[in-house]
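ASSEMBLY PREDICTION REQUEST
Request ID: AP-0331
Submitted by: J.K., bench scientist
Number of chains: two
Total residues: 519
Priority: normal
Notes: Please return the full assembly, not individual chains.
Input sequences:
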Amino acid sequence: MSGPLIRVEDLHKSFGSKIVHNGVTFELEEGQTLTIIGGSGSGKSVLLKQIIGLIRPNSGHIFIDGEDITALDEFELQRVQMKMGYVFQEAALFDSLTVGENVAFGLRTIMEAEKQHALKIARQKLSMVGLQGVENLKPSQLSGGMKKRVGIARAIAMGPEILLYDEPTTGLDPVMSDVVSDLILKLKEESGTTAIAVTHDMKSAYKISDKIAMLFEGKILQIGSPEEIQNSSNAIVRQFIAGSSRGPIPVPRI
Amino acid sequence: MLTNENNPFLIAGRKILGAAQTCGEMVVLMRRTFYWMGRTPIDRFSLFYQMVEMGNRSLPVVSLTMIFAGMVIALQTGYSSIRVFNEPLFIGAAVGHSIFKELSPVFTAMVFSGRVGAAIAAELGTMKVTEQLDALHTLGTNPVRYLAVPRFIAAILVFPLLVVYADLMGVIGGYIVTTVQLRISSTVYIEDITGINLNVFMHGFWKSFVFALIIVVVSCYKGFTTKGGAEGVGKATTAAVVLSMVLVLVSDYFVSAILVAFGIG
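STATUS: Completed
Returned structure:
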């Protein structure tokens, strides 16, 4: 393959009168990890959902491996979605299934693997994320950190080329956040997966990213290496990464 | 002065457009369900589970409702005919006709929408707000195929059987009052019931398919289109039950008219 694995071109998305994306453009090479940072409600998760085809943009293009997914119908899109794994913010595990069945779900329904074979692979994937002996538990019996890791195991079960992480460390304690960040790095090193993560957690962003992009007012304000972002001269980027309430980013008055 | 907010024509127009859009989307959901039914191997375990959930667990409520419905019809008919004719007449016929044609399918539909329809809307609605439906998409599984199809088939298979069971319960209720309270020979009551034309029974039976379709489509639709968090799930569940009941009662007239026109009942 030549060229970037993921290319987003002039993406526009609005919900009613609220404009979420106003010309988002970026690209990502194979094997790289991009972290998208930005304030709450800036449209980071919406961007991720457009990349996997859960939400259709109003205009613009999203190329996955050279194929424009905005032009695909439901069935063609499903074929492209199989190249991707999605880790949801709250894990989105199926309540009615056990942990093992959750991880084996795609293998059973899409790859039509035998139940025992699928559960064996599920156990391997759970072991990769540091979870053993939990396959017979229900999601409600797991802690927040365990749910996140099961969500990651489910996303990697079918061996996707691209992984999309929606707030992978949000809601976790600092130690567990670091465990999840290490896991993302480990998956990248072991399988060379291309990844996009959206997060507010700058410590995790610096650790896992090859590139960081700041989304602000519907556009990518700056994209660069973690060092370039840390040393950014842009006042908005500097305020955001410093986590300060004083600066050009509009904040509610208290 | 009329503004966009208080103009009654605009408000009415928006409501009509909204209702038309809801109807259209429900028809689209039904079409997509039929599409996937023809292209998906049926998951027997899931279908069996749904049938048990819908059918078996509805039996106690249906039994109670229909026994008392049969009892009250027998009681009313008995005492009315005593006042008019000085003796209780045609009780079996009155119980049979009203139970088979109307009370059994309609009351069972009420129970079914309150128990099964609410459960479907709440379950799918919770899956929607917790992103489990999105998760299905990302795992290459269409939620209509995975969630709506087994519920749809189970409802279409189970509901008519429940209606037949409700017919039986209604007849038993009528029998109890006729023989115990009105002291009429059981032979007379049974002869009245068995003398009823099969078409009367089939009238209610055919209706039950339409009612099952309405309840399952409305409930799945309300579940799939849930918005917000826990409050949204509550609203979707209530809306599913209310809309199902209203559509069942409205369609009852039209389906009855069509069946009568075709000489069924």
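REVIEWER COMMENTS: The interface with chain A takes residues 126-127, 130-132, 134-135, 137-142, 146 of chain B (CB under 8 Å).
SIGN-OFF: pending second reviewer
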